[in-house]
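DM from R.C. (forwarded with permission)

"hey, sorry to bug you on a friday — could you get me a structure for this? deadline for the figure draft is monday and I only need the backbone to look sensible"
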Amino acid sequence: KFCRDFRSSLSIELRRVVDVEVGDIRLVKFGEFLNSLPVPTSINLFKMEPLRGLGAMIVESSFAFVLVNIYLGGAGKTRFRVEGRDFTPIELNIVRKVVTNALLDFQKAWEPVEPVKIEFQRTEINPQFVSIAHPTEIVLVIESSVDVEGNSGLVQIVMPYAMVEPMREKLSSGFLGEGA
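My reply, with the result:
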């Protein structure tokens, strides 16, 4: 449901054909996950009331720059050099707008399981400053592959296992008739 809603809202926002597909869903140690992220990375932290703790929506750097390019009227075909470059305030605001809309879609996808209120907290670009879990704790990583007219990238949702553990019974009982 999240992928369907996100595809629709992003297509409307960008005025382009967008495809969003669920990728891997896995459990990993938080420290290992953080070590796999390059600098800079758009790491957007969110709170998910009534669940405790913070989650993160990560937009792959090169894809974030493609989104900014398209959002500002470009073709999105240019390959951007990501290493050694930070996001400008304008780029951060554009990515934040996309993430905020995606979080609304994620909130809607949770309604059949547990009504939650998702609230954007802040953006980090260096994984070293993100502490949603202890490095040895397990996190749930949900990958979505997003394709905007041939430009693709990953959007990942990361939640500490302790955050979703109270919902484990509901999640495994078949509440998701529409699929996630």
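R.C.: lifesaver. The beta strands are 18-29, 42-49, 54-59, 117-124, 138-148, 151-160.
me: no worries. Residues 175-180 have pLDDT under 50 and may be disordered.
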